[in-house]
Amino acid sequence: MSAIAKELDAKRYGRLLARVLPKAIETRDENDRALAEIELLMDKGARRKPEESALMNLLVNLVQDFESKFEPIPDVDPHQLLLHLMEARGLKQRDLLPVFKSSGIASEVISGKRAISKSQARKLSEFFHVPADLFI
Of 9, 46, 68, 82, which residue is the least packed, with the fewest Cβ within 10 Å? Predict the structure, then answer.
């Protein structure tokens, strides 16, 4: 049994599953609903309970599976992809400070003057819920 499974309260997790009813995603509407639920769970941050984290991980996997099969991301320049993801989510440079830790580095990466490092690609992957290799 994994460490996460040991931490979970089965009844609480069951109630979450019954409320959200996660399943294999087959339509864009189902995908949007899962993304909205993920966003709500992400907003909880450190207050997120282990059961909520487990549900969020499950939903992220379902979304990634759907998007990789039905909405593949075309090969694009990592810098252009970053700009697109920022625009699509209405993000500003300051919103990426948790990833880059410095406004100067964020500015250089966003403007294309600096390449995205492997560690930054991993952080961007977690931030945007896309594969890290898209940024490399």
Answer: 46
